[in-house]
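Tokens for chain A. Residues wanted.
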């Protein structure tokens, strides 16, 4: 049931505050007398002596994995690689010791992801124990094929998602990665208890911040959709933890509105893609105060000098940001580390409203299926 929303995708975008709440209740609810404030129900031997993590995924799940890598490396200091499952199968990394392999798939049925995990499991069988696969799945459907393939699962708590474009399952995957990275960090004592508490308290504020964003953005994104419904190319830029959100914003727009869009790390624009820019190519820039804010603003300035219309996803509405952006999609002030859960929301809405404005079948875009069970 669409519960009064025009499409399932819009309903699912609006369900995200609830998804974050459910994840907080489930994961951030520690068993007594453990050193970690997180409880994912995973055994200690999955974490012991961990030297490396390989994450295998496709599409939006791959974007969530990139944010997972950022969180795990920055918080828990474990070297982490993210691979497209379809590529990894034919060119896997060398077998390393004490390696955790994580498959991320909301459906649990993506053929490429299942095949890459199976290959990783088989080629490590019979090796010394430290080389054997430690396998973990992150899925919205623990009863799926993935659930049967791997011994341990973090269930994401999005509920059923009907729209082919992943929205709330992405947010649920992000929550799983926050919990995993913080759990690893707590066990390895790579961040102080104060910092952990601060991050967890910040996460607890996120549901109401998403609600505020949804409320303020619905009209703004609809207006922008009106102006951009016939645009042919879009560029999305971000840096650091928001680079994967630029990729995700571009993917959402491509798959449901059929508009060509690319996501780039803002600093890479000058190495080629800047040649694409002119007044016909709008640039959406994610600019969150923190480690890369000034850099993103100066990259945005470079785009503006090529006459691109600039749309800023930012909590800042004065100073340079107010001057440089032609349009603002404002979000609440939020710690950079937590910002992707908020910055993705206006991009989902923008893609949705552009596709709806173009009269397209938002929930069932052409050529796509909800689970891709062929390799
Ligand atoms: O079920 P999965 O998470 O394994 O699906 C992976 C991709 O097929 C999926 O994320 C796809 O890119 C979506 N249509 C994105 O909106």
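Reply:
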């Amino acid at each position: 049931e669409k519960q009064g929303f025009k499409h399932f995708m819009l309903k699912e975008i609006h369900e995200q505050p609830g998804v974050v709440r459910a994840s907080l209740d489930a994961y951030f609810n520690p068993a007594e007398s453990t050193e970690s404030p997180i409880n994912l129900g995973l055994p200690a031997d999955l974490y012991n002596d961990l030297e490396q993590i390989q994450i295998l995924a496709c599409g939006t799940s791959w974007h969530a994995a990139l944010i997972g890598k950022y969180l795990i490396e920055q918080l828990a200091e474990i070297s982490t690689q993210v691979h497209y499952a379809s590529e990894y199968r034919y060119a896997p990394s060398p077998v390393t010791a004490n390696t955790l392999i994580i498959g991320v798939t909301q459906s649990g049925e993506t053929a490429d992801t299942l095949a890459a995990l199976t290959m990783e499991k088989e080629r490590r069988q019979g090796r010394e124990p430290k080389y054997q696969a430690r396998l973990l799945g992150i899925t919205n459907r623990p009863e799926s094929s993935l659930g049967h393939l791997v011994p341990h699962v973090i269930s994401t708590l999005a509920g059923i998602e009907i729209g082919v474009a992943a929205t709330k399952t992405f947010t649920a995957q992000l929550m799983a990665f926050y919990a995993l990275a913080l759990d690893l960090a707590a066990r390895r004592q790579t961040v102080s208890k104060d910092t952990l508490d601060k991050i967890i308290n910040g996460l607890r504020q996120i549901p109401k911040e998403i609600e505020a964003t949804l409320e303020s953005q619905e009209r703004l994104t609809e207006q922008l959709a009106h102006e951009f419904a016939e645009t042919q190319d879009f560029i999305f830029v971000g840096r650091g933890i928001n680079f994967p959100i630029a990729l995700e914003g571009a993917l959402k727009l491509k798959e449901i509105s059929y508009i060509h869009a690319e996501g780039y790390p803002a600093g890479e624009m000058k190495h080629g893609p800047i040649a694409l820019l002119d007044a016909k190519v709008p640039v959406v820039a994610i600019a969150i105060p923190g480690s890369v804010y000034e850099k993103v603003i100066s990259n945005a300035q470079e785009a503006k000098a090529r006459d691109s219309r600039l749309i800023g996803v930012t909590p800042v509405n004065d100073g340079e940001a107010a001057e440089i952006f032609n349009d603002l999609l404002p979000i609440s002030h939020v710690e950079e580390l937590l910002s992707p859960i908020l910055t993705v929301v206006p991009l989902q809405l923008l893609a949705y409203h552009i596709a709806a404005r173009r009269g397209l079948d938002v929930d069932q875009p052409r050529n796509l299926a909800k689970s891709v069970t062929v390799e």
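Residues 58-61, 105-107, 110, 113, 164-166, 255, 368, 371-372 surround 5-amino-5-deoxy-1-O-phosphono-D-mannitol (CB under 6 Å). The chain is about 45% helix and 15% strand.
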